[in-house]
Amino acid sequence: xxxxxxxxxxxxxxxxxxxxxxxxxxxxxxxxxxxRKTHMKDFFRKSKHGWHYTDLFNKPTYCCVCNQHILQxxxxxxxxxxxxxxxxxxxxxxxxxxEIMAPCSPDGAMEHRWVRGNVPLAxxxxxxxxxxxxxxxxxxxxxxxxxxxxxxxxxxSLTDGDQCELGEFHNLIIPPHYLYRVNKLRRRxxxxxxxxxxxxxxxxxxxxxxxxxxxxxxxxxxxxxEFRTVLNPxxxxxxxxxxxxxxxxxxTLLPPGSVRVLVCGGDGTVGWxxxxxxxxxxKGQDQFMPRVTxxxxxxxxxxxxxxxxxxxxxxxxxxxxxxxxxxxxxxxKMDRWKVQVASKGLYFxxxxxxxxxxxxxxxxxxxxxxxxxAHREKTPSFFSSRIINKTVYFLxxxxxxxxxxxxxxxxxxxxxxxxxxxxxxxxxxxxxxxxGYWGGGCRLWEGxxxxxxxxxxxxDGLLEVVGVFGSFHCAQxxxxxxxxxxxxxxxxxxxxLKL
Length: 499
Prior knowledge:
Blueprint: H1 2-46, E1 51-54, E2 61-62, E3 69-70, E4 73-76, E5 82-84, H2 88-94, E6 114-116, E7 141-143, E8 149-150, H3 176-184, H4 190-197, E9 207-211, H5 220-230, E10 236-238, H6 244-247, E11 260-265, H7 267-282, E12 291-296, H8 302-306, H9 319-328, E13 337-341, E14 352-356, E15 359-362, H10 364-378, H11 386-403, E16 413-417, E17 420-422, E18 429-433, E19 437-438, E20 442-443, E21 463-468, H12 471-478, E22 485-490, E23 493-497
Parallel strand pairs: 9-10, 9-11, 11-12
Antiparallel strand pairs: 1-4, 2-3, 4-5, 6-7, 7-8, 13-14, 15-18, 16-17, 16-23, 18-21, 19-20, 21-22
Helix pairs in contact: 10-11
């Protein structure tokens, strides 16, 4: 009997060991990885480089310190320096990053700032015009400012007079010598900035990039790095770390009326930036107010679509083409509206005043938007792509079709357009539009009907008011199977809701 018990205990011991040991090793590795990650984060925060750690580089990459091929390591998204983990500290100490502020040479010229190796694919030598970066090793040079590439062997052929002129996008880049001179100014006045701007060439219209890393397809982080590579890193702002109001203070150090702002995000982010520009007006900084362009990363992007910047960006064109589009763009005016929300009878409560760029509504689509916003604020990590966002909208729309929370709205609401009462049919929702698109790319006012109607315009001082019969009707409008009820156009719209 004893002989049989011992093998059973031995088997149980080895089985437990086989289960417990891998678990302990996994937990230890996880703890070490977490510790390493925290250590790396701390190191990256203190560094002058814009380091990003990666487990796998997407193209053949070589360490700028030891010249060896690397798969796992870090790269700086400002200057393009790459290093494996062992060489990271040496790279940080010995290799200089892009300087956001620096003096130029006495003759006013700016020298190239070369980084060796890992040149972009399909880049060509400025001297011999042959392709660079074709050898399987750390080779060839790239200027971090003008993006010029040169072979190792052609470096000696560059003439002394060959200075950096900031390349194709010199009209959009804030040169480091401009900020250096601004910093030295005793009197910081607009006229002084305009004088300094003459050294940056005619047609200089610097661009500031403001990206919301939480918008739509979560492409913001990648785009921030790509823009830092091409522009001065001081021009690129992450809105998860800095508010638009603080980012736009850079406009007050640049010539009045010269600045453009590229907003990378959804319509909500654009509205946030436009509100920050309104704040500049309240501070008496009217002359420094920038012009706004959009790179649509959001879910709906109706404002971007209306202004001709597209219905949604998914990386289909490189950032260089985005910057070319900004250079070619023309300025258009757009109406912005104040929406005043007041409770009847509560005379001592101050009315709430909101800004409107796109549209506002009372009814099922407003309820869907509110539910979506509340859900996203609660679990932001879940909303990582446009597909998920649109699915959530669809689910809330389906739920409202069944519940019909806004039923008989026409009996509880009064509508006045320019002071005249409008008789309402049996509606569940009213939508007031400033722009041509609504609900993620639907032409709400023009619709698909044959009856003639006045056209919508961004700058005509008029709002378009339509009605919908419910969530199902909203869905039919979006797939062009139905039209909304056109209630009219007006300069002022007043709605009275009886609760």
